[in-house]
User: Fold this.
Amino acid sequence: MENKSKAPKYEHAKIESKWQKVWAKNKTYETKEGGKKPKAYVLDMFPYPSGDGLHVGHPKGYIATDIYSRFKRMNGFNVLHPMGWDAFGLPAENYAIKNKINPEIAVKKNIKYFKSQVEKIGFDYDWSREVNTTDPGFYKWTQWIFLQLYKKGLAFESSEPINWCPSCKTGLANEDLENGKCERCGSEVEKKPIRQWVLKITDYAERLLSDLEALNWPESIKESQRNWIGKSEGSEISFPVKTKYKYVLLHGWKSDSKSCFIPWLKRELEAEGHEVVALDMPHPLIPDVVEQADYVLSKVKFDENTILLGHSLGSVVSYRILEKLKTPIHKLILVAGLIEPKFRDHDRLMAKYLMSWKFDFEKIKKNVGEIVIIEDNNDVIIPDGESAVIQRALGGLTYRLEAEKPHFCGMVEPIVLEHCLDKIKVFTTRADTLFGATYLVVAPEHPLIERLSPQITNIKEVQAYVAKTIKRTEIERTAEGKEKTGIEILGLTAINPTNGQEIPIWVADYVLPDYGTGAIMAVPAHDERDHQFAKKFKLPIIQVIGEDLPTRLENWGGAYAGYGKLVNSGKFTGMESVKAKEAITKMVRGKIVTKYKLRDWVFSRQRYWGEPIPIIHCPKCGPVPVPEKDLPVILPKVKSYEPTGTGESPLAAISKWVNVKCPTCGEKAKRETNTMPQWAGSSWYYLRYIDPKNTKALIDKKKEKYWSPVDMYVGGTEHATRHLIYARFWHKFLFDIGAVSQTEPFTQLKNQGMILGSDNRKMSKRWGNVVNPDDIVRDYGADTLRVYEMFMGPFEQGASWSSDNLMGARRFVEKVWRLAGKVSTGRSHVLGGPDKRLETLLHKTIKQATTDINNFNYNTVVSALMILANEWEKAETINKEDWLTFLKLLAPLAPHMTEELWSSLGQKGSIHLAAWPVWDESKLISDTVSLVIQINGKTRETIIIPTNLSEKEAVKMALDNDIVKKWVGVEPLKKIIYIPNRLLNLVI
RNA sequence: GCCUAGGUGGCGGAAUUGGUAUACGCUACAGACUUAAAAUCUGUCGCCCGUAAGGGAUUGAGGGUUCGACUCCCUCCCUAGGCACCA
Assistant:
């Protein structure tokens, strides 16, 4: 009682503001470079400074890193523990629009409020390194990284249809969707083709996946990323399409219809049922291509089902033919074709002087549906790269490969035949079931439908189905339990390459256009979806797996998707699935390939509040990167920053900013007006803390090498497949260009569990269950808040707020405050004298606090400290050295109070710079231990024995015990299990 | 459907990794102090039988390994999260 009155009252507000000022003045937590200390980079995911401010859930992670960083500092580490603001992006912008404040002003205001909230909790941040993604000095380097990506071809423009949020009025990345809805506002997204910038994150898919293995991250986050990347290994297999065409084959200079591959190709195509015309053209030695073209036109009628093939000079004849046609033909195939009078071996004077090389490219393009250009890598006549020259003039697809004989002069040229025939390429992970592929299905978006439309007899119905399905949103298309729809494409059939079977081709929207090849082989016996589809449309189902299955196909409810031995599979019958995959792929000349579900990162937003993309569009030079010396491209101040919804950002309206001179040619040009997504700045901000003031380079190499990577990264799980994938991607890219020294940015990651409201619901204004940390700090103190949040339960688990439990933490803090009154210079006493038990307990507590803080098991640290405090409360006096040790253990958790008690005992310097206590292993052992005695594995008695007693003596002591005697009786001991200092089990 | 993490008193949760299950805290109840209340302090507090001494069952369910299982193995149920018509 006397001690109680001696101690001054615990006034948290006074103590906390006092020490916060002292720490700031003394720069207690400023990180200094160099020295011989090992480093520890401890990092929080930096917040959006939203208008609402923080609720008590936000600081949970910050408290955890704060404890960890203080602990590391006291253990002799050079600690980097910074904080900053992720202030670009939709939340900040929407807040600004809603409140009619310029985003720049709104963000400044919000940051000020956030910072005041954070500072009250007493974190050890080095504020001299504070970063803000909207600061031009910061986003200069965000733009710089974009330019490096652009230079390496990893940033490109595309007009593919992307996810468009009609409410946020901007394009979105795949990662920004939640069940097909905009993650921010919940609107259903539409597919809209708008021009946008895309980052080629898919180039890094394999590394992003395989490097996960070595990371010390929660398994669930790694699993999310694995799911998101979605790797699957399978085969690409081509199915020939059976069509009816008229082929016109034109031979080259000095040849005729009997030379090279022409006769062979004619036979092969005729065998497939096509009509083939191979003409001998007039004057093969000194040709006049105009005359030859007229000759061909007089002999052959060209229409939409004609395929024209020109070999060598025949290609030039084909241009002249196409110039003169009234209606387009289906396809033009150029084999070793040419478009200019250049030759590898010698000049051909007739080609140079007797012929014109001017062509009407527009007319030619108009008169042909599809162009294929095949170049021989070992050609001796046509110059290297001629296919690219032709492609520039005419478009089409080019293939550079090795012919059987140079210049495609072989009698047999299978590659030429392959390009003459139409094919559907499918991706499958189950090549072993290929014999059971009874039909093909293509996505409604598949180019084949358009390309082969003249051959499709029910084209009207097919087009109607396509039009209907393409309009549907992603959710409608993939809605669970949805009946499968589709329509057969009549007039076309495909050939199963294993057995030559003719199979139908369907179009159905259960096949997705942007995964695999946009077409599948359907194996209804062994794929649930195909099974449903086949049942509905009465398509054949053939079992090819399961020779050894107990039940037959008819008895299965649906498809059997497992592995097994093959049946009905020709020479592969009896083979195991796994082996058959490779063997069958090989037989049909398929390719083993790897596919990923990860899509490229749609990187532009048609919004105001983001980093401008540093590109200038010049009518002459195309897109030109802004020279690095001109960075940053400053986001201009505007009056109206509301989204336009037109696919253009509000920046497009600022002509003063938009109109610039092309950096390459100096002519009039326009700035890119799209901005970057909110994830841009956060993809590299952790590097900026290392070197926050650098204006010359992204980061100083020496500093980067010292501090990278982040040793402990803490944040919420919601960033699993966005921030954490994007940042890893950028980091790997920066590693590839030599800007950083590590391949991964964050070696260890912890997720804090969410703090829910006292009603078990997510804290939100909507439920009125939000608790503001300012109120808790004011009424109970920051130290109490910190201790409470750490004591709530395991760090990675969620828990709901409870004011009762908060009081428990407050009581503990006050108890510690009161204990200070018992401190004396003698040994810790209980009534009657010094107590060795308390010494043992102290050392146990040091050990537990040390290992538990290292593992983020803060709830058990608090409990251990409580146990010691409870014991001391029963003691008369507390030894001063023991007390100081205890304060140090508590210091990371309750920094203000411990600092106050530390200094009140006359200690020099901050407790937070003191050395962490070390436990003495020998002091952990007490003189006596309680030994558990079990009879047949059941606990019956506990006896106190001297430490390290031998088995013999322990058994003797146990058998002396009355209760043990009662249980053992006269039975002989069958077996004795003795665990020294712990347990004795007597089996009778 | 596939994958991942979980399931322990009235509640939040501990358990030295196979060795006394329920530490620590909250709640509740009783007592002390007080004119009274709050605060504080002290004590009791998982379940069933029993006045008690004592005994029995018990870590989502069932089975197994073991002298001994919250902990390891198998089957199943439930909760949370990720992916999902991805061929």
Summary: The first strand of chain A starts at residue 39 and ends at 44.
